[in-house]
Specification:
Elements lengths: L1 E3 L2 E4 L1 H20 L5 H18 E2 L4 E2 L2 E2 L4
Antiparallel strand pairs: 1-2, 2-5, 3-4
Helix pairs in contact: 1-2
Length: about 70
């Protein structure tokens, strides 16, 4: 999670870059025949959390969320 002025913020742009990076690490790990199960699990949890907490059905967009006040 990204932090701004000591207020934790879940920022969709930052998190989407994190998701993309994890996907690429998993791909490279697969090519190298490494165990990527931990990365895959983290990616699954992160993706689920982003969709559950940041997606707004009404506007059909991901919004940042201030984690200090819910």
């Amino acid at each position: 999670w990204e932090t701004t002025k000591n207020h934790p913020i879940a920022e969709p742009a930052f998190l989407s870059l994190t998701v993309w990076s994890l996907e690429q690490l998993i791909y490279i790990g697969g090519l190298l025949k490494d165990d990527v199960s931990e990365l895959s699990e983290y990616l699954e949890v992160l993706t689920y959390s982003i969709n559950e907490q940041l997606w707004d059905e009404e506007y059909c967009i991901y919004f940042p969320k201030n984690l200090s006040n819910g």
